[in-house]
Amino acid sequence: MTTRSTRKKRRRKAPGRGTLMTISALLIGSAVIRIGGDANQAFAKVPNATEVEKPTHTNAECKTPDDFQPMLDAFRQREARLSSQELALEDRMQALKVANREIERKLAELTKAEEALRETIALADTAAESDLDRLTRVYENMKPKQAAALFEEMDPNFAAGFIGRMRPEAAAAVMAGLSPEAAHAFSVVLAGRNTNVPTE
Question: Are 150 and 186 in a shared domain?
Answer without folding.
Answer: yes
